[in-house]
């Protein structure tokens, strides 16, 4: 993809040595030195520090090396995708969506499209969006607010988060609860970077409630772990109604007297228009 002199520069920069770079490319050191010098003249920049002290690469050399590595990596990804014989889709979902909402729909998508190769990962919102930006995902399905200026998107589902406690917790029968009462009963929260956490913080903020770090009894990234702690009366937490199955309703209940509920959307986002069609498919299942 790059001219030979750029490949030579990369080898020398990676090894921090003219000799090691030459050995890697099976050429003579004088030939390497000549090509590097030609490249510096062509660019009008000093790329390698030839003094006996300081970094091997100049700032300009470091920038060029990182640029070459970045371009080659992206090119490798592009070529690999072109060579894939099957129609492939890489999906990333957040933990709530991946565990409780989308999995059956993904199964239906595969069942009706047997030639479609599906790769799915489940992480928190921050990590999923990062992977979408880096081109590691084709589609992201996340919770909460989406920047419509940055992504194409489609809302798949409207979800509701309610405060839950154990059936043994006194909060289930108390009236006129305040936020202080909730904190006293051990508020359990998802980790930073979670879309669920962000939705809860923003919703309570609209009701003039600022959640402090000291208000949080425990932070857990595992949703089932949070639910189990609540059921065993170790604390209270905001949970999606999707998470509670019929058997668990005997152990866990909504705190109805604290009626601040968190409304959020499950939104599919993409950067390549060719993946838009899957939003309608997933909605229909």
Q: Could you characterize the architecture of this molecule?
A:
With 285 residues, the chain is of the alpha/beta class. The protein has three domains: 4-79, Winged helix-like DNA-binding domain superfamily/Winged helix DNA-binding domain (Arc Repressor Mutant, subunit A, Orthogonal Bundle), CATH 1.10.10; 87-157 and 265-284, D-Maltodextrin-Binding Protein, domain 2, CATH 3.40.190; 159-264, 3-Layer(aba) Sandwich (D-Maltodextrin-Binding Protein, domain 2), CATH 3.40.190.10. Helix content is 42%, strand content 20%. The protein contains eleven helices and nine strands. Strands 1, 2, 3, 4, 7, 8 and 9 form a seven-stranded mixed sheet that branches. Strands 5-6 form a two-stranded parallel ribbon. Helix 2 crosses helix 3 (29-43). It is elongated and about 85 Å long. The two termini are 44 Å apart. The mean pLDDT is 89.
Break the fold down into its secondary structure elements and pairings:
Layout: H1 4-15, H2 18-25, H3 29-43, H4 59-83, E1 87-93, H5 95-101, H6 103-112, E2 116-122, H7 125-133, E3 139-143, E4 152-166, H8 179-184, E5 187-189, H9 195-206, E6 216-219, H10 223-231, E7 237-240, E8 252-254, E9 262-270, H11 277-284
In a few lines, what is going on in this structure?
With 285 residues, this protein is α/β, with parallel strands linked by helices.
Name the CATH superfamily classification of the largest domain.
Periplasmic binding protein-like II
Helices, by number, come to 11
- The low-pLDDT segments are none
Rg from alpha-carbon coordinates: 27 Å
Straight-line distance between termini: 44 Å
For this structure, the quaternary state is single chain
| Shape call | elongated
Structural class: alpha/beta
Q: Can you write the helix and strand succession as a string? A: HHHHEHHEHEEHEHEHEEEH
The fold-level CATH name of the largest domain is: D-Maltodextrin-Binding Protein, domain 2
Give the class-level CATH name of the largest domain. Alpha Beta
Query: Domains counted in the coordinates: how many?
Result: 3
Can you count the beta strands? 9
The helix content, as a percent range, equals 40-55%
């Amino acid at each position: 993809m790059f001219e030979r002199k750029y490949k030579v520069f990369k080898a020398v920069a990676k090894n921090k040595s003219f000799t090691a770079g030459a050995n890697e490319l099976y050429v003579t050191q004088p030939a390497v030195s000549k090509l590097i010098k030609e490249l510096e003249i062509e660019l009008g920049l000093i790329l390698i520090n030839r003094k006996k002290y300081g970094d091997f690469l100049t700032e300009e050399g470091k920038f060029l090396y990182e640029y070459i590595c970045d371009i080659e990596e992206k090119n490798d990804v592009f070529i690999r995708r072109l060579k894939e014989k099957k129609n492939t889709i890489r999906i990333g979902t957040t933990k709530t969506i991946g565990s409780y909402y989308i999995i059956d729909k993904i199964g239906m998508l595969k069942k009706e499209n047997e030639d479609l190769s599906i790769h799915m990962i489940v992480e928190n919102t921050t990590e999923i969006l990062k992977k979408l930006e880096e081109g590691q995902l084709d589609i992201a399905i996340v919770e909460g607010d989406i920047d419509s200026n940055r992504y194409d998107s489609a809302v798949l589902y409207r979800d509701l988060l309610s405060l839950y406690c154990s059936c043994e917790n006194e909060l289930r029968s108390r009236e006129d609860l305040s936020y202080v009462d909730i904190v006293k009963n051990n508020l359990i929260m998802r980790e930073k970077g979670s879309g669920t956490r962000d939705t809860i913080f923003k919703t309570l903020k609209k009701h003039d409630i600022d959640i402090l770090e000291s208000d949080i009894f425990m932070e857990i990234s595992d949703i089932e772990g949070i639910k189990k702690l609540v059921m065993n009366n170790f604390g209270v937490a905001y949970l999606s109604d999707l998470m509670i199955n019929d058997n668990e309703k005997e152990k866990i209940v909504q705190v109805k007297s604290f009626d601040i509920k968190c409304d959020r959307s499950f939104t599919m986002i993409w950067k390549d228009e060719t993946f838009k069609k899957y939003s309608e498919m997933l909605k229909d299942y």
